[in-house]
Write a structure and sequence with these properties.
The structure holds 2 protein chains of 2 kinds. Chain A has 9 helices and no strands. By secondary structure, chain A is mainly alpha-helical. Chain B is mainly α. The N and C termini of chain B lie far apart (about 50 Å). The chains are: A mainly alpha, B mainly alpha. Chain A: One of its GO terms (biological process) is DNA-templated transcription initiation. Chain A: Belongs to the sigma-70 factor family. ECF subfamily. Chain A: It comes from Novosphingobium malaysiense. Chain A: InterPro entries: RNA_pol_sigma-70-like, RNA_pol_sigma-70_dom, RNA_pol_sigma70_r2, RNA_pol_sigma70_r4_t2, RNA_pol_sigma_r2, RNA_pol_sigma_r3/r4-like, WH-like_DNA-bd_sf.
């Protein structure tokens, strides 16, 4: 019975959900890696992995969390494989997000980004998951494969680091961002 | 043009409200919304052309 020729409703639903999380995956990958092009490669590769592994996804659970975990693991293995630590300065210059002149508030996004990239990787990941993506501590801990208490303390440290960095003068920010 | 370039020369940029980054006592610090803004600015971007291949792959993969 050539059942699989016909796209199943489950596959169709999965595809829709996967497509809907792509923008979030891009934002997460960009935040993690600090590089727009590398991030987009990661997202595409992670999306293919997710699609290939779709049998393992339980419909009705959290597609965003599931794919974030795939993306994160892929990112870490790419880092290990390439032995390439992201080059912070190049990254920041390349992917500078241009904000409109009428942006509100005194905090410029490029400063924010520099500060973010200056965090220790596991803290950056933590604050991206909880502070930016809006995951609960529990979900974030699942994604990062760590205990919830560890996630909480990473987020707290990331927050303290960011607050400290962003309260410095711009020059000190540059020097201190590492 | 005279668009802010991200450097804060003397701390007080014309037209900007007082520095909210220091007002951590009243709830959320300024950087917290900055972080979300940064993140959301990427979420809101349209998918770049480089994603066309991926989308096509997902479309084709049913009968693969």
């Amino acid at each position: 019975m050539p059942e699989r020729i016909k796209p199943s409703a489950a596959d169709e639903a999965f595809r829709k959900e996967l497509l809907s999380v792509l923008p979030h995956l891009r934002a997460f990958a960009r935040g993690l890696s600090g590089r727009a092009d590398f991030a987009d490669d990661l997202v595409q590769e992670a999306a293919i992995k997710a699609w290939t592994a779709r049998e393992r996804y339980e419909p009705g659970t959290n597609m965003r969390a599931w794919t974030f975990a795939i993306l994160r693991n892929h990112y870490l293995s790419e880092l290990r494989r390439n032995k390439r630590q992201t080059d912070i300065d190049d990254g920041v210059a390349e992917r500078m997000l241009v904000m409109d002149a009428d942006q509100e508030g005194p905090l410029h996004l490029d400063d924010m980004e520099t500060a973010l990239q200056g965090l220790a990787p596991e803290r950056r990941e933590a604050v991206l998951l909880v502070g930016a993506s809006g995951f609960s501590y529990e979900e974030a801990a699942d994604i990062a494969g760590c205990p919830i208490g560890t996630m909480k303390s990473r987020v707290a440290r990331a927050r303290a680091d960011l607050a400290k960095t962003l309260n410095q003068e711009p020059d000190a920010l540059k020097a201190g961002a590492r | 043009m005279n668009q802010p370039n991200g450097r804060k020369h003397s701390g007080n940029v014309k037209g900007f409200p007082p520095d909210v980054r220091k007002s951590q006592e009243d709830g959320e610090p300024g950087w917290a919304s900055g972080l979300r803004k940064l993140y959301n600015s990427v979420v809101d971007e349209p998918l770049p052309d480089s994603f066309q291949d991926l989308l096509k792959k997902l479309d084709d993969s049913d009968d693969a």
